[in-house]
Amino acid sequence: MSDWWKKAVIYQVYPRSFKDSNGDGWGDLKGIIDKLDYLQLLGVDALWISPVYDSPQDDNGYDIRDYRKIYDRFGSNADMERLIGEAHKRQIKIIMDLVANHTSDEHLWFQESKKSKDNLFSDYYIWKDPKPDGSAPNNWGSHFGGSAWEYVPERGQYYLHYYTKKQPDLNWENEKVRQEIYDLMQFWIDKGVDGWRMDVIAEISKYTDFPDYEPQSGKEFIVGSMHRNGPRLHEFIQEMNRAVLAPNDCMTVGEAPGSNAEIAKLFTNPKRQELNMIFTFEHVELDRVPGSPNRKWALRPFIFTELKQVLSNWQDTLHGCGWNALYFENHDRPRIISRWGNDTTYRKECAKAFATVLHGMQGTPYVYQGEEIGMVNAHYELNEYDDVEIKNAYKEYVIKNKSISEEVFKKAVWQVGRDNARTPMQWSAGEEAGFTTGEPCLKVNPRFPEINVDEALADQDSIFYYYKKLIDLRHHEPILTEGTYQLLLKDDPQLFVYERVYQDQKWLVVANFWEDTVEANPIAPFIYDQWEAVISNYSDADPHAPLKPYEAFIIRKIG
Ligand code: NOJ
pLDDT by residue (tens digit) across 207-256? Predict the structure, then answer.
């Protein structure tokens, strides 16, 4: 199996909001093709494209109606083939999103499955009889609120849905289901797809006895550890590896909620022949109040030393026996500089500081669309958001349970709502940020006149060119891919400092995550006698000088 992904940087495209080519307000495949030269200039090696399959769009395409057909608003199958071809011409690989834990309820399999207990597709989903009193089979909750079970009178049974009611979970115990998934993967691989991002792959194997969770106060339905890492998970992934991944030399990244670094070894140790890497949730959920009935909307202040500890633990644990997927942003996470940094006075410095720390680590970095120009969170009125997660949570926690006030909920949405990252890509200072000539599917972030691609490309000192340089370093410096990692100053509340070592090379990565200058410079003991700057976000990197607000640099030992 090839390992090009070890020296690669992957760019995530969220098609709906990337670039609209026909003025209908939705991004589309032609729009992505139009921007391939831009992506080539940035230097990324592959695009992970969020789902573009036919879908009723209840969860923006993570609810698939037909795996073999492109959704009309995104284009046609021919457009997808053209995108693959045009990307390949530019040495850019294409990673598709495999959503195989669930389908749409409008998928033919479910339409048939719900009709009776004895048709061809009856066992494609997870059906259970009601409890004797007619209630749901257990107290499991959906990630998007409410019960994870929905009753269908036609069958006299409940089906399981970890996400919305329109996203029934597939029954991976059924061999035919697994084969269907491998077949559809092969369908796209035959069209040139190079790899897969696997949606909530850690959830595909279920605890099939479906025991109740221990009751918890304030919660009618519970989402917990039994929702993931089920007993046959690794067996299923190994089977998929044998059936499709290995024979086609696919690159893979699994989305693995509930995984710690030890579990990550099970997925990513090459000896086990499962996946290349996984996305962890540990570092991006550090500001969540554990166990709150308001789930992700219950926020606590973020503690910087915890971020260092978590990221470093993943570096240490996977070194030599697994691989990291490095990310701060994606279509489910807010803009990192708005969340934990400064997106106003020091927006550019701050974006570069986060990037320096992430791209200095071992693993495969992911850049989410707009991250490379320092896009920021969108602070909208609640009714201006479109995300089903926000809408469901509002109904459940604000209206029904009254467990959170509207004001506190809105603040939480501004902080961590998914639509923060889903606003249209800001290409220019023109109408609708150059995203569409029509009415955009989601309001454009009003800061687009200041933050846009045209501006970034015209400024040699922009965040864009800083990312470009980091990406270039990843391609050419084996210390980034192979070197050891050691966190320094672990208890320092302002500085993220670590050292990479490879053969006779040493690199020191330093970032001040603070809006103030750090006067007494604690990195002094680690500075090499002779050094040169590899990259720096202020023009005059001097490790001996006080560290300026959000100053970040990498220096290498010379001599
Ligand atoms: C994870 C995806 O990233 C998210 O956007 C989606 O809502 C859920 N999985 C369900 O597919």
Answer: 999 999 999 998 999 999 999 999 999 999 999 999 999 999 999 999 99
Distance (angstroms) between ligand 1 centre and the Cα of 389 equals 10
> How do residues 477-503 score in pLDDT, each as one tens digit?
999 999 999 999 999 999 999 999 999
Q: Residue of the nearest CA to atom 8 in ligand 1?
A: 62
Atom of ligand 1 nearest to the CA of 388: 7
Structure tokens at 385: 């958001």
- Select from 142, 169, 199 the residue to mutate for testing ligand 1; criterion: most ligand atoms less than 8 Å from CB: 199
Determine the distance separating the centroid of ligand 1 and the alpha carbon of 62, expressed in angstroms: 6
**φ, ψ (nearest 5 deg) of residue 288:** -100, 135
Residue 199 near ligand 1, beta carbon < 6 Å: yes
From the list 540, 547, 473, the residue with the least C-alpha distance to 507 is 473
Domain 108-160 sits in CATH 3.90.400.10 = yes
Q: At 559, is the pLDDT very low, low, confident or very high (cuts 50, 70, 90)?
A: confident
499 an active-site residue?
no
CB-ligand 1 contact for 198 (6 Å cutoff): no
Q: Which CATH number fits domain 488-557: 3.40.50.1400, 3.30.390.10, 2.60.40.1180, 3.30.230.70?
A: 2.60.40.1180
Domain 4-101+176-385+448-469: which CATH number of 3.30.930.10, 2.40.50.100, 3.30.300.10, 3.20.20.80 = 3.20.20.80
Q: Which of 45, 150, 255, 349 is catalytic?
A: 255
pLDDT tens digit sequence for 323-334: 999 999 999 999
Phi-psi region for residue 363, left (φ > 0), alpha (ψ -120 to 50) or beta? left
Q: Domain coordinates of the chain in residue numbers?
A: 4-101+176-385+448-469, 108-160, 488-557
Which amino acid makes up residue 460? Q
Catalytic residue status for 235: no
Cβ contacts of 403 within 8 Å, gap of 6 or more: 218, 293, 294, 397
Measured CA to CA, the distance from residue 97 to residue 51 in angstroms comes to: 5
Instruction: Read off the pLDDT of residues 71-91 as tens digits, 9 standing for 90 and up.
Output: 999 999 999 999 999 999 999
Whole-angstrom Cα distance, residue 182 to residue 197?
A: 14
